[in-house]
Specification:
The complex is a heterodimer of chains A (about 450) and B (about 525). Among the domains of chain A are: about 90 residues, PmbA/TldD fold; about 230 residues, no CATH class. Chain A is globular, with a radius of gyration of 24 Å. Chain A has about 450 residues and is α+β, with helices and mostly antiparallel strands. Chain B has about 525 residues and is an alpha+beta fold. Helix content of chain B is about 25%, strand content about 35%. Chain B contains 13 helices and 23 strands. In chain B, helix 2 crosses helix 3. Chain B starts with a helix and ends in a 9-residue tail after the last strand. Classes of the chains: A alpha+beta (about 450), B alpha+beta (about 525). The interface between A and B is large, with 77 and 85 residues. Strand 3 of chain A pairs parallel with strand 2 of chain B, so a sheet runs across the interface.
Chain lengths: ~450, ~525
Amino acid sequence: MNRDEKLVSSELVAAVIEEAKDRNVEHAEAFFDREEELSIEVREGEVENLKIAQDAGLGVRVIQSGRLGYAYTTGLTRGDVVGTLEAALANARAASEDAYYTLPQPAKNYPELDIDDSSLGEVSLEEKIELARRIERSGRSFDQLVRITEQVSYEEVRFEIAIANTEGISLTSKGSFCGGVAAFVAGKDGDLQTGFSVDFVRKLKELDVEAIGKEAASKAVRMLGAQRLKTKRVPVIMDPYVVASFLGMMASALSAEAVQKGRSLFAGKVGERVASTEVNIADDGARPGGILSSPFDGEGVPTQRTVLVEGGVLQGFLHNSYTAAKDGVSSTGNAVRGSFQSPPQLGSTNFYLSAGKCKPGEIIRGTGEGFYLTEVMGMHTANPISGDFSLGAAGIWIHNGELTTPVRGMVIAGNILELLDRVDAVGSDLRFFASKGAPTIRVANLTVSGQ
Amino acid sequence: MIAKVDLEEVLQVAGRNGDFAEVFMERSTQTRVSMEAGKIERVISGRDQGAGIRVVRGENTAYGYTTDLTRDGLIKLAHQVAVGGQDDAQNSKLSTESGDMSNNVETAGKTGFEIGAGLKAKAEAQTEGGAVPGAAETPTPIVLQKRESLVSLPIEQRPDKVGIDRKVALVKEAEQAARSKDEQLIRQVSAGYADIIQQVTIANSEGVYVEDERVRSRLVVHVVASDGKVIQTGYDSAGGTKGFELFEEVKAADLGMRAAERALLMLKARRAPAGRMDVVISGEAGGTMIHEACGHGLEADLVQKNLSVYAGRKGEQVASELVTVIDDGTISGKYGSFRFDDEGNPAQRNVLIEKGILQKFMYDRITSQKDGVNPTGNARRETFRYRPIPRMSTTYLAPGEHSPEEIIRETDSGLFVRRMGGGQVNTTTGDFVFEVLEGYLIKDGKIDEPVRGATLTGNGPEVLQKIDRVGNDPGFTIGTCGKDGQGVPVSDAQPTIRIPDLVVGGILEDEGDN
């Protein structure tokens, strides 16, 4: 054996399994991830920051005597394979035993997905720089009140993954995504307001850079002159971005892991109504065009569409191999990997609130007085276990069915279950912000705190 | 790691078209142990290594990184960053011409690579003038000279010398202590230990050469309590630029018990009222508010982009006279401390606001040059995967004269915050929001019943002007601060302070608990 021999992708993960079998390891799994990242930040038409990166690493998971161990490395030689496998085995010895640890068997079929855009390798760097410049130009020329470019960037990631385990799984996949980010500051009479927009897609040709710039600019301009209003209890209309932010909090509560560990507010409620009848929520790891779509999950299980809430009634939870074994069900293909530095976690993929029938404009027109919520601050402080949230809020006040005064510095507080229960209108404008998707919704009566 | 002489060559290659080139090499080992549902669930160890190369030219920065830490790997990356990501064939062609700077500039122009219009203009100007520095002669060799640090961050028990069993035992101790607080109401406890030994080598084209080792340890406990109707959580954490000796000073069991007590207390609490009220924030609450509401706005990159409410206000009264804000990366053992920042500048103590007057911003190299000042030792990055940007280290509001008891006594009614959670700030407007993890009503100058779900919102500069009491009891907390997608360890502190008339988010009094 040549310990310095460099290995990549399927060779590398196969080497781990080979070494594991030589050592009579009961169950072993190897995960390899290689990523190439490009990020171009422009300001005033110039490339302010350019980033090109190559990252690669190996993660090894073992189950020995019912105990789980994990180790990782950025070294990719035969010697690193052995060292990492031995570290994982040593870690397993320090962990607790659990009869439900398991690795999946190979599946017959995996969804066929078009997730790799080979054109990313053909389009030149100069053309990509121009895409970033176009985002900036479309935003800065949107209105003369747009004064400062806070951030404008074009970003792309191309990746290759390989998974193998002792049960016979041996899979590889290549993919890519690209997108743009824009944040502008608009100014008038000493008042400064920011606006933000982001869009990530699978195919470069689907990227509408002008739309990103315009959206961020228009959001900044429409907030100029925003004031703090008096505390009031009114219907709140949330734009898709705000709803998508709330979904992040729901996704963790809808995982079987949260249920099994007693930290889900949905525990024991399958078959019960947990939201208004307008609410439908699903996770779809095989969604065409979805940013987190992949033929298989982080353990090698085929991905699928899983309905979680239908007509307001809770249908079930997201599973990986471990939680599924514990509950005696099948994995929903929701083992997700952030990087090779962590074992697969149970998580959501393309997670969304389904579109309803109402046009967003009609929802606003049908609201006498209300708050059109376009920005929340501090979502990471919301408590996914209790469902309690209290967030900084900005948006536009609605009078007589029309958007009127911009408002900032308000607070909305409540509980996610109450919020879901009070949803009385769902828009037809489903939109994805990377992995979370949502339409406009209206929530009957929330306290909007101000002065 | 790579020899010094090889780094000199890497810098020479990377910097041939730039004003400044830098290599940041990192080798880190980490251990994480976590327990949940009564089991040691995760025992993870790993090695991470790589290098980032940065080339600055005018106002433009190119950055690249690789996990290939060989001399060849770095030279290849240096070529790529020097020409901004062109393909390998192009690189090898360029490398054969590396003796001739003017030729390189031209070649770069011809291949169409230009980091922005400004760079192109600059390249042309140089070519026309014929005065390209180093043209037609061998470029000045880079000679690296090692910098020594004056900051002492002693580590008594390196985590790699502590067996995994002791780390597992520590996590179990915290978990069991939390559970023992109330077998019935405490539904879930999770405890996590993590350590990192990060060895870095930083070298740049100005001859700076720094080697540093950062050792950090932390323990975090989360508790979920429920009475069947309401679910509440409690949290406590400890961390430092320390080894395993941290857990001689901070007992794991105490941490677990405090997290459990907080969850149980909040179970009994009713919801916080909404509205404007006087808020007293305890020294125990830590300095999250100073970090968010003030600190971020004093980072020079945001200031220079006009994204800070403090832009252009140096020398002005931006806060009440009671307010002195300091960022200090040199305090022994604190989670946000280091000997050198991630550009190799020595860590420093910087007085940012003194008696309400804005004195200084926090800088990295690029921003300090733009303002014509010295770097302040605030350039930080999460790992070699990121370029450095201005960041805080340990940020605190300097203690004042009042005792905390006195401050509460002098407050007729309002909210007392014993423990603060996370927060967020919009630096452009200064608007912020924070969650209150442990809060109480103040009635007639006394701490009264606990309340849950409160948040504090306001405007940073307004709040700093309004602070009318500053206590003598500073208390530190730890955190991971996120900015531009990079998380870095920080600590922050403040003594007990009073902010009159702050907006507290909660629920309207008349609607009850539905």
